[in-house]
Amino acid sequence: MQLSTKDRHILEDLAAGKKPDDIVVERHDVTLKDIAQAAHNALRLDTLHRHTSTHKSGDTDTRTYEVWTPSEDKRLQSMLEHGTPIQTISNVLERHPMVIRRRMRQLELDSYL
Q1: Burial 47-78 (b: 16+ CB within 10 A, else e)
Q2: Contact (Cβ atoms closer than 8 angstroms) between residue 30 and residue 24
Q3: pTM for this structure?
Q4: What's the sign of the alpha-carbon dihedral 12, 14, 18, 21?
Q5: At what angle do helices 70-81 and 86-93 cross, to 10 degrees?
Q6: At what angle do helices 70-81 and 97-106 cross, to 10 degrees?
Q7: ∠ at Cα 92 (88, 95), nearest 5°?
Q8: Given its phi and psi angles, is residue 83 left (phi above 0), alpha (psi -120 to 50 degrees) or beta?
Q9: CB atoms within 10 A of CB 23
Q10: What is the pLDDT of residues 62-110, one digit of tens each?
């Protein structure tokens, strides 16, 4: 996703300290709705950038760095108790097998390894 030229100009005006009402008066092609949309698009782009920059280069597993929830821990333990293979657990929990094994060690479930 990229910002449009119009969005960039609006954001530059805001960054320069111009008020939204002044921008609308100066630029007849811009409405208050356009200014709100430019701000929304900038926030979406920032969120996307922060999300992708938290992952290591080449890491295609988007859940690698997410915090484990208590419910995921219980699900992991239950699947291990039922003899579910690591690869299946990995697919179900959408986490890399190596991350599953690391969590097993953290929860002292490594007897299932």
Answers
A1: eeeeeeeeeeeeeebeeeeeeeeeebeeebee
A2: yes
A3: 0.48
A4: positive
A5: 150
A6: 100
A7: 90
A8: left
A9: 20
A10: 577 788 999 999 999 999 999 999 999 998 998 999 999 999 999 999 8
